[in-house]
Amino acid sequence: MGSGPRVCSRCVYDDTIPSIIFDADGVCQFCKIHDAMERRYPLGEEGAARLAALVARIKAAGRGRDYDCVVGVSGGVDSTYTLYQAVRLGLRPLAVHFDNGWNSEIAVHNIENATRTLGVTLETHVADWDDFRRLQISFLRASTSDAEIPTDMAISAVLLKTAAKLGLRYVLSGHSFRAEGIVPRDWTYFDGRYIRAVHKQFSGSARTGIPNLSLPTLVWYMFGRRIQLLPFLNFMEYDKKSAAAVIAREVGWQDYGGHHHESVYTHFFQSYLLPRKFGIDKRKLGLSARIRSGRITREEALAVLAGSPYPENPDIVEYTRRKLELSEEEFAAIMAAPVKTFHDYPTHFPLLRALRGPLALGARLGVVPPVLYYKYVHAPQDGEADAAGR
Fold first, then answer.
1. Residue 58 pLDDT > 80, yes or no?
2. Is pTM beyond 0.70 here?
3. d(CA 103, CA 76)
4. Which of 5, 70, 79, 263 could form a disulfide with 14 if both were Cys (CB 3.0 to 4.6 A apart)?
5. Higher pLDDT, 148 or 365
6. Cα dihedral across residues 116, 122, 128, 134: positive or negative
7. Residues forming a β-bridge with 96
8. Residue 205, SS3?
9. C-beta of residue 218 within 8 angstroms of C-beta of residue 368
10. What mean pLDDT, rounded, does the chain reach?
11. Dihedrals φ, ψ of 93, to 5°?
12. Residues 123 and 96 sit within 8 Å (Cβ to Cβ)
C-alpha cells in the first residue's frame, strides 16, 4: 500500500478529512449521505411530480402578495439558474443580493442582466465595508478553514429576514448535492455563536453590524414563521456546465473563469488559502458529486486531481491582502499560524448533537434542510434507515 491518504472506494474524498468514516467496502459516509439525499429528492417522473407540487404550494402561499418566494443571487451559475428556473416555472421571486465588497465586475453584470431580462425585482443589502473587513480578519486570525462563513451566515440571515418581513414562507437556494457535493463540517462549520466568539477573541468585541443568526432566531424563522430554506435545484436534473450554457443564452450570463470566482475573496480563499494553509482541495467536492451522480468515472476524477489544483495567481493574493489592509508581516503571520478547527472555539455544536431527535423531526417535516441534519448531527451508516425521512 502507498503512503498517501486513504481514498473512498466510490468517490475521491479521503482521510485528510478528519471525520471521514469508511465502511467494510471502503465507502465513506458522505456517499451514504448522497444516497439518502437521492431518496429524499428523486428525479424522473416522481421528481417532476414533486417539483410541480412544490411550485403549486409556493404559488398558493404567496397568493395576494407582490412575491411568492425569495431567491438569493450572487452572479454565479447556481443562483442565476435557480432564479431562471423559478421564473420559468411561473413563480414570482424577489431576488436578494448581499454585497460584502468582494463582487467581481462580471458578477455584478450577471446579476443585473439576469434580473432585468427576467423582469425580477432586485434588492441589494450592502455591508459596511470596514465592519465586514474586521470580521473577515478575525476569522483569518482564528486559523480555521472557515474564513468564508461570515459571508455565508450573512446571506442566510438577510434572506430569512427579508422573507419574514414580506410574510413569505419560501427561500430558494441554489445548492445542488448532485453538482456541489456535501461539504464536510471539518472544512466548513458555521453557527452564530461561533462567529461571535471568534470575533470577540480576535477583535476585542463580539459586536458587529454584519447580519448574523442566533440559534433562537433561526428556530423562530423555521418553526415560528414556518419559513423553509429550499435547495431548489435538488428537485431537478442539474448539471453546472449545461446550466451555464442555458443562462448564457437566455439571460446573458458571462463566465467569470473559475468555481465560485464571482467573488474575488472566494477566488483567493479556494485557490490559495485553503490549499496552501489547510491542504484542502475543494475540487474533490464537485468531482465526487459528479461520480456519485454518474456523470464521470472515479478514474477520470483521480486523473483531474493528479494535476495542479489551481493556477498560481499572485495578483489575487496581493489584492486581497491590500484590500483587507493587512501588512505583509501580518499576512505572513496568518499563513504561518498553527491550524485550528471550530472545536477550538465556543459553538453550538454540542447542543446540535444533543438535539438530534428534534432536528430529525424537523428534517422529516421539511423545516430543517436534510443535508444540514446529516452534516451536523447524523451520518447514515450501513443498514440504517433514512433518518430524515422521505
1. yes
2. yes
3. 11
4. 5
5. 148
6. negative
7. 72, 123
8. coil
9. no
10. 91
11. -80, 150
12. yes
User: What is the residue type of 231?
Assistant: P
- Rounded to whole angstroms, the Cα distance separating 221 from 30 reads 28
Element (H, E) at 349: helix 349-354
Rounded to 5 degrees, φ, ψ at 154 are -60, -40
Three-point CA angle 364, 180, 335, nearest 5°: 115
User: Using CA atoms, how far apart are residues 38 and 178, in angstroms rounded to an integer?
Assistant: 9
Which residues, 6+ apart, have CB-to-CB distance to 296 below 8 Å? 287, 290
Answer whether 210's CB lies under 8 Å from 127's CB. Answer: yes
- Residue 293: the pLDDT is 94
* Rounded distance between C-alpha atoms, residue 326 and residue 133, angstroms: 10
d(CA 3, CA 86): 48
pLDDT at 257 over 70: no
Position 379 scores a pLDDT of 57
The three cell numbers of residue 13 are 474524498
Residue 380 has pLDDT above 60, yes or no: no
Spatial CA neighbour of 74 closest among 86, 85, 82: 82
Average the pLDDT over 119-131 and give the result. 97
> What are the two backbone dihedrals, phi and then psi, of residue 196, each rounded to the nearest 5 degrees?
-65, -40
Minimal CA–CA distance to 149: which of 357, 347, 382?
Answer: 347
Q: How many Cβ atoms sit within 10 Å of the Cβ of residue 212?
A: 22
Query: Residue 50 corresponds to which cell in the numbers above?
Result: 414533486
